[in-house]
Amino acid sequence: MLPPSRQDYVSISLAGAGAGSYNNSKQWRRQSCWRKWKQLSRLQRSLILCVLVLLFICGIASYPTVTEHIRGNALCAAHPKHSSLSVSLKLNTTGGACLFLVFRNWRGAVIDTEQATKGTKDMENKDEPPANPEAKPSEESEAVREAFRHAWRGYKDFAWGHDELRPISKSYSEWFGLGLTLIDALDTMWIMGLKEEFEEAKAWVASELSFNRNVDVNLFESTIRILGGLLSTYHLTGDTLFLDKAKDIGSRLMPAFNTPSKIPYSDVNIGKGTAHPPRWTSDSTVAEVTSIQLEFRELSRLTQEPQYQASVAEIMQQVHKLDGKLDGLVPMFINTNSGQFTHQGIYTLGARADSYYEYLLKQWIQGGRKEDQLLEDYLQAMEGVKKNMLQKSSPNGLTFVGELSHGQFSPKMDHLVCFLPGTLALGAHFGLPADHMELAKELMETCYQMYVQMETGLSPEIVHFNMHQGSVRDIEVKLADRHNLLRPETVESLFYLYRFTKDHKYRQWGWEVLQNFNKYTKVSSGGFTSINNVRDPEYPSPRDKMESFFLGETLKYLYLLFSDEPDLISLDHYVFNTEAHPLPIWPASA
Ligand code: DMJ
């Protein structure tokens, strides 16, 4: 069993009542009670005390709102379904006796209810049916767990402690040399209840993972995968090992912000403490510098060290004010010297801009929906999408998000854009305009069609939509775009759409995607592989690489899509970073 964290204790003071002035009758009553009490035998007194303590515990355990009043601001409760409850008596710092109720939660459904705002708690009570403690994992959830185990077996056998599995050659590839897949997968294992796998991964983190390495890492990728993965695992488990590691990598990434403009460089050497842009430019990617905020903000909140949050807030402030946007849409590059957008006039919701939009909304949610500027930028951008980027395909009228280049519309859509239905639905859940949900549903259908219209039932990396009347098919794929990297965006959005609508078709679609991953990308000796050609079911042409996000994101979202546990990572308590690592929504007082 994991050691309880600071937040695992619910302390209820039973002694040490404050001094007060007593009047005579009160004093008399108290003395007579005391005399009666003294007349009881030792056994009688023990029995009465036991019954009182038991009644007290039952009351507390069955009325979580009561515990919240008692515990004030500094404690946590767990979802009863996955929790164990133990009781202990300890002395508090002022010498009074304290009864401690220790909630331990293996699957981490809702460890820290204090992280939720009051408003969202109310919403949750209203919307979500109580968990059914008898519910068995569905066949679909089991199938996802099995897929995860298969992926993990390959990683364990051939790539343990390395960044990515190469399942065909039974070897591995390094990117940063930091066990990327293992770290990305930690919280997925916890959520899926894969104890054994989690424990062996944790042992590796404890004994092998060192960030004191002379290695260049990409700021964005290491933030979303490593820092995000460690922070969320800390929150789910309460184990400070992960927080300590998160602090270590977070502080080692900070040199990236030492630029003339304060817009960070793309790369940092975490051993030497030096940072630099890519060799060929002094630009950074807009999506990269604006999609590290959830993680650094959370790191500041946990450590009470403001520099992390200040550095990423500075970026948002600057981007907010920059010229070169089109109706809230941003270009793809920003210069680290001047702080200005470069390569202006090109707009996409795909690669290099995608998660800018996602993080506007998610920071607003994370911070308790108080940061109006983030919301304004998000709403303006979504209007910009509607005005400039949306079109319908022919012959079937699929709504899609294209790209703009100097006023010229291109009907090109990356699979990456399929994060958008989920993000729009999340915003609508938190009270943003209802037409966001309608658009989310339309785009969800399109992303699904990007799968079903391919011969393998798996989406390519990029599609082009036909817009001229009389087209035979809606979707075209260029030769160079036929690969599938096991990306998560469509199943991510299916998860959100199912959570908010409970429309079973989204599960059905996710089930089909899982079946096709199993059919065309599963490698018998362990692991899954990216493929080169989604249009050739006879020979999809394996690429020999399993991306870390397949375990960190794709399988996690599929599992959550099929899970019948409404509180398993409640969207009223957690916000997912762009690598699917859930971080707590801050309490109202933060
Ligand atoms: C992941 O690393 C993240 O989801 C990122 O935002 C986009 N690219 C991959 C998954 O496709």
Automatic annotation (TrEMBL):
One of its GO terms (biological process) is carbohydrate metabolic process. InterPro entries: 6hp_glycosidase-like_sf, Glyco_hydro_47, Glycosyl_Hydrolase_47, Seven-hairpin_glycosidases. GO terms for molecular function: calcium ion binding; mannosyl-oligosaccharide 1,2-alpha-mannosidase activity. Its main location: endoplasmic reticulum. It is found in: Endoplasmic reticulum membrane. Pfam families: Glyco_hydro_47 (PF01532). Pathway: Protein modification; protein glycosylation. Disulfide bonds join C418-C447. The chain crosses the membrane at residues 46-66. This is alpha-1,2-Mannosidase. It comes from Gouania willdenowi (Blunt-snouted clingfish).
